Automatic annotation (TrEMBL):
Record domain Transcription regulator PadR N-terminal: where: 9-85
Entry protein name: PadR family transcriptional regulator
Organism: Actinorhabdospora filicis
InterPro entries the record matches: Tscrpt_reg_PadR_N, WH-like_DNA-bd_sf, WH_DNA-bd_sf
Xref: Gene3D superfamilies: Winged helix-like DNA-binding domain superfamily/Winged helix DNA-binding domain
Length: 215
């Protein structure tokens, strides 16, 4: 997975020589399991895979008391090349945001007007909770003193602010769309109670669509 590879290569590049447990603790503090879907176990697997691919190399393996041995890594020329290429590819490209909500939203008429409105207001409430927590954390963040636990680089702070603005926009959208669901202007009832004639018309339309060429 490119996200795991990029984060590991980037952190090893900055902190080398660095062992896996340090990387695990740092990435866990970033909350990568939530927003990047990177599991703790995949971090160690990723280090081994990057090493096997020649992108990282082992510097040393240390045994302290009865603790598990810790292997330290540094980046190779091949790893540096992959990091630079992936970094620029992901920063310069525009990729669609894949939120499961939008997939399920295609079938929201199944809920009916009242449940759809309740769902949207509940989503808005959950988003407000997240926004409040994030704003609280940002208010305590220090962008200059890296020795403090509250240190947060300015470029990371700006990214979090972008996420907050997106969530605030989603809150407004949910609240406005909930009203439309309730008053009938969203058209949920029309689709929810679609009759046989409408379904046949839909099927005839499907027959006119281009052949996807799937056998």
């Amino acid at each position: 997975m490119w996200t795991t590879r990029l984060m590991l290569l980037g952190l090893v590049r900055w902190l080398q020589p660095v062992h896996g447990y340090e990387l695990l603790r740092e990435l866990t503090s970033w909350g990568v399991e939530d927003w990047a879907k990177v599991k703790p176990g995949s971090i160690y697997h990723g280090l081994k895979k990057l090493t096997a691919d020649g992108c990282l190399e082992v510097v040393a393996t240390e045994q302290v008391d009865n603790r598990p041995a810790r292997t330290s890594y540094k980046i190779t020329a091949k790893g540096e090349a992959e990091f630079q290429e992936t970094l620029r590819a992901k920063l310069w490209e525009l990729a669609p945001i894949q939120d499961p909500f939008f997939i399920a939203w295609s079938f929201v008429p199944v809920l009916g007007r009242r449940e759809a409105a309740a769902m949207l207001r509940n989503r808005a409430a959950m988003l407000r909770d997240v926004v409040a927590k994030q704003e609280g954390l940002l208010s305590l963040a220090s962008p200059t003193d890296f020795t403090r636990d509250s240190f947060l680089p300015t470029h990371v702070k700006r990214a979090l602010e972008l996420g907050l603005e997106a969530m605030k926009l989603s809150i407004r959208w949910c609240e406005e769309t909930a009203v439309e669901a309730e008053n009938g202007t969203l058209g949920i009832d029309d689709i929810h109670h679609m009759g046989p004639d409408a379904i046949e018309h839909w099927k005839r339309h499907i027959a006119t669509l281009p052949d996807p060429g799937v056998s």
